[in-house]
Amino acid sequence: MTLVTAALIVLAVVGSNALEFWDPAEEFPELNTYFDNNYIGKSFATLQEKHPDLVKTSSLGKTPRGNDMHEITITSDVSNWRTANKPSVKYVANMHGNEVRGRGLLLKFAYYLAMSYDSDQDVRDIMDTTVFHLLPTINPDGFASAVHSCSGVSGRYTSDGTDMNRDFPSHWQSGTRLKFANETKMLMNYAARVPAVLGISFHDGALVTNYPWDGAPDIASGKYAASPDDALFITMAKTYSLNHKSMYKPAAQCGHDDFKDGITNGNKWYKVFNGMQDWNYMYNDCFEVTIELGCCKYPSDAAATFGDVWSDNFNSMFAFSKLANSGIKGRVTDFSGNPLKDVTITVSGIDKTIKVRHPEGYFWRPLLAGTYNVSASKHGYYTLSRKSVVVLENEPTLMNFILIPKSQGEIKETEKDEEDEDTVGEIDEEDDEDEGEGNYSNGDDEDMIQNDIGPGSDDFRETDGGSGGEETQEGNQDKGMIGDDTIDNDTADNDNRDDGSKDNTEKDKDDPSSRSRDLSPSVLVVVSILFGVLRTFC
After folding, report:
1. Whether residue 393 lies in the annotated active site
2. d(CA 216, CA 227)
3. What whole-number distance in Å separates Cα of residue 438 and Cα of residue 249?
4. Cα–Cα dist 261/182, whole Å
5. pTM here?
6. How far apart are CA 197 and CA 364, in angstroms?
7. Cα dihedral sign for 352, 364, 331, 453?
């Protein structure tokens, strides 16, 4: 992808958005200091008290030295965020305790979101469509022991000496690890409870956006290691770097760094195994990047540091978050309208599937503009496939699925209309042997780690995907178009749609091209399908 193409995508993401810049430290000067962990907890509690409809805070648990790992969730109607039709975006910082800029950045971001919702329509629009989860420090013990230094490792590790960014299960290594740092286990449990679509981990020591893979076993350190979503990650990385005040400028690089456009593939920079970024992408379907915020890890001048980092990254954080609502999004239900979880969403040409993890069956799959074949599969159900799904750059394509259980009867091979070349909404009879995604919050931490998340355990392996078809980067066809002939986008209850999709639903009802294929199933399955369709429209 050329710089011009990336710049156009970035411009489309940010657009003419009129986000009003202001620094929360103007009202709360403590935000421009090296505040301690207790201040984070008190600040979050104050925000929750003043903005109860927008803010919910909690602790992931206690570190070995008794510090809370504070978390804040911010969105409109926050009490119902778990069931809302909104993707989650997770920003964390201070994984290495002596890398401090992200702590102040995320605390200011929390204040900005909560305090701007009523007065800034652009912030309101973002919070009405996105759930933010912010963790300013995920290594509070390390920060407490860190000292002012631009380099070095004092405070980098947890209190038990663990480098957290080398402590997550690796998709490349076999065997089951039985012990992780306490902080790592809290984050793994949190990832299971809060399935984020996008993520950022903020670090210091360079000025660059780093994207997967961080490490690949058959590729030497210093060589490029492309993930299945490499083109998408490049665009995501440029969305951050090109909206930053200086990250993309060669003069802003640290020392001998030479990162074109302010981005780098992780393995090409240097190899990292067991990192959080790759783990989140592979096992949690969270498209995560690592942002290095500055050359000096722990500067002595807090006021200047936090003032600069806020203004430098303000636009980038918002532009990046909007990517959560790109690609395809929708809902998966059975024919009675009940939401289905653990459904595998496969996109042709991309060897990376995602799971439907939302309790109401909603899913989000970031994609670049183009035309794709997409399928939804779940063990015990017929696989539903859709061809020629058009994805645009600036808005998601809505796509809902109704899956038919195999217990309802036999479905015969899909018939094709003579005048059409593609079969859309076809039901495949292949038995999809999905493997579990892993549940990291089943009680005791040690049992949980041993049984559920070790690499090589059945519950922790990635389901094979990406079969069939070639991805084509064509674009800019009709909005939400799914081939020549569709099983309607409105296969879920209209009340659960985005407001903007309801008008399209009404149009599709009267459009003779929006018909379903003749599936030629048994009578019982026909009744099931008709019941689902009638439920959608009535």
Report:
1. no
2. 9
3. 42
4. 37
5. 0.79
6. 7
7. positive
Confidence of residue 170 (pLDDT cuts 50, 70, 90): confident
Both tokens of 382, joined, read 């017929």
Q: In whole angstroms, give the CA distance from residue 255 to residue 252.
A: 9
Alpha-helix residue ranges (DSSP H) falling in 367-423: none
Q: What is residue 451's DSSP assignment?
A: I
CB burial readout 218-227, b (16+ within 10 A) else e:
eeeeeeebbb
- Given the residues 99, 183, 292, 426, select the one marked as catalytic: 292
Q: Which amino acid is at 249?
A: K
Output the six-digit token pair for 62: 């206690």
Place of tokens 């959080």: 276
How far is C-alpha 300 from the chain's CA centre?
34
Asked if residues 158 and 182 have their Cβ atoms less than 8 Å apart, the reply is yes
Give CA separation, 225 vs 28, 266, 268, 320, in Å: 43, 8, 7, 23
Q: How far apart are CA 19 and CA 322, in angstroms?
A: 13
Mean pLDDT of the chain: 80
CA separation (Å) from 423 to 74, 139, 219, 466, 485? Answer: 42, 52, 40, 18, 8
Whether 407 shows a pLDDT value over 60: the answer reads yes
Q: Which two tokens stand for residue 88?
A: 């989650």
Tokens (6 digits) for 431 = 């038995």
- Read off the tokens for 537: 């429209």
**Each residue's pLDDT tens digit, 308-340:** 999 999 999 999 999 999 999 999 999 999 999
Q: Tokens 């909104």 label which residue?
A: 86
Question: Which residues fall within 8 angstroms of residue 339, CB to CB, at 6 or more apart?
Answer: 331, 332, 333, 358, 359, 360, 361, 362
DSSP E strands: which ranges in 162-238? 198-203, 206-211
- CA 477 to CA 503: how far, in whole Å? 19
Condensed to tens digits (0 to 9), the pLDDT of residues 43-82 reads 999 999 999 999 999 999 999 999 999 999 999 999 999 9
Nearest partner of 519 among 411, 417, 378, judged by Cα:
411
Q: Which of 173, 162, 218 is nearest to 454 (CA)?
A: 173
Map residue 330 onto helix, strand or coil: strand
Q: What is the rounded average pLDDT of the residues 405-410? A: 74
